[in-house]
Amino acid sequence: MIESPTRRDVLQSIGAGFGMVGLAGVLGTAATPGSGFAGAANSSPLAVKPGHLPAKAKRVIFLFMNGGPSHVDTFDPKPMLTKYDGSAPPDSEAGRKKMKLMKSPFTFKKYGKAGIEVSDLFPNIARQIDDICVIRSMVTDSPAHERALLFMNSGNMQPIRPSMGSWLTYGLGTENQNLPGFMVLCPGKPVVGPQLWGNSFLPAVFQGTHINNANINPKTLIRHLENPALNLSVQRDQLDLLQAFNQIHLDQRANDSTLESRIQSLEIAYRMQAEAMDGFDLAKEPERIRRMYGPGEFANACLLARRLTERGVRMVQIYYGNGQPWDDHGDILNHRKHAEKSDQAVGALLADLKARGLLDETLVIWGGEFGRTPASQGAKGRDHHSRGFTMWLAGGGIKGGMVHGATDELGIDSVQDRVHVHDLHATILHLMGLDHERLTFRYSGRDFRLTDVHGHVVQEILA
Asked: Tell me, what DSSP letter sits at residue 186?
């Protein structure tokens, strides 16, 4: 005999329909043991929460160059590679068979007041260098894509921990209750996929919402957003009736935060129909702004990121493309085409944010999961490299026009002011007003955090 579904079963089925927009399965409250935050049992888990310390940034845009851009061909010039071009690498690289040191095929030029060297791949980014802090001493724990991607996104090399965007929205909530707090733009999916923006053991509302921006038609970007049968007015009447019944059901079950959260998801999904359609409609941008960013999927994503962050979305993460496009094992000259598709848009994003007064409160991050070897792979390519590579940050409390740290003269090892991924995460949280040691979540009998038991704030790069 088949049992009839309970009312709760029905509500759970309804709520699950909105999982793709990061609204289903809303669990828990703002107050979680170890989080350091307080909240009522019936408050929205995405409501804005105070941080541990004064925030220098309100929002994050992470420009992720998945595949791993080469530091010695972008922001870390190495003249000694030219001198020793074709020579065998030092003993530390001897394990890489048949590899020879390879000079960069790109030229470097000094930019900005501090004369920071940037390769000819990025002339538009270089013009904004006075607002950028270039970290040349990054290190990570693995030169394998999957593990390095997970580590850069969640602080762990296994797909078992919440992503940084999930931690940020868990800790701070989001300013716009009509949109998901953490959005991911990628035309396809990077290697590993949804685990890179997953919530793991955090409540499901904190997971990232993946938007495939291969098509920027706002009516198709988020599937099932519009009701094909009912207009907004009729939907409102229907939802009001449903919520009235839901409230009666909830009143009989005090402190059922899971039920309350599922009820909230219906209301948020309704409001998204207007808010999301407006935020994703690039046709509302002036033509001169669209020309400034340039054409293409990545350019559209950068413009969307600006529109979403100015509407209060806490974090927008942009993956450059499907798979691992910067993974240039065969020919490092392929970096040229990737730069041509991204440089104009990134330069425009920084300039646009600054012109609108948003850069000071928006932290922009650029980089990949690791760098690439100073030695060649094959005739013209470069392999993965984790012992020293470059990322840069701008806006949101960052000291611009500076270089932090250094690799050795060949670009092999980080030798000065080493910055580990845990340190980067600690610094990002600090800029957002969160103490990485206090932002915790109790799960399976222990308190977890983004930086595990590691990490130091890089004070030298803070404005």
From this structure: -
Does residue 392 contact residue 71 with C-beta atoms inside 8 Å? no
Q: 3-state DSSP helix/strand/coil percent for the chain, to nearest 5?
A: 35, 15, 45
Distances in Å between the Cα of 460 and the Cα atoms of 62, 136, 390, 404 are 21, 13, 16, 8
Provide the β-strand partners of residue 190: 323
**Cα three-residue angle 175-421-137, rounded to 5 degrees:** 120
Burial string for 409-418 (b: 16+ CB within 10 Å, else e) reads ebbbbbeebb
Contacts of 221 (CB under 8 A, 6+ apart): 211, 212, 213, 215, 276, 280
* Confidence (pTM): 0.87
- What value does the mean pLDDT of the chain take? 88
Q: How buried is 68 (Cβ within 10 angstroms: 0-12 exposed, 13-18 middle, 19+ buried)?
A: buried
Q: How far is CA 285 from CA 73, 280, 291, 306, in A?
A: 34, 10, 10, 11
> Which residue in 112, 46, 106, 50 sits closest to 380, CA to CA?
106
Average pLDDT over residues 227-239: 81
The answer to whether 141 and 455 have CB atoms below 8 angstroms apart is no
Residue 304's identity, in one-letter code, is L
Give pLDDT, residue 257.
Answer: 55
pLDDT in tens, 187-197: 999 999 999 99
Q: 185-222, pLDDT tens digit by residue? A: 999 999 999 999 999 999 888 999 999 999 888 777 77
d(CA 269, CA 18): 7
Average pLDDT over residues 14-20: 39
User: Which residues are bridge partners to 407 per DSSP?
Assistant: 414
The whole-angstrom distance between residue 315's C-alpha and the CA centroid of its chain comes to: 7
pLDDT of residue 26: 35
pLDDT at 27 (0 to 100)? 34
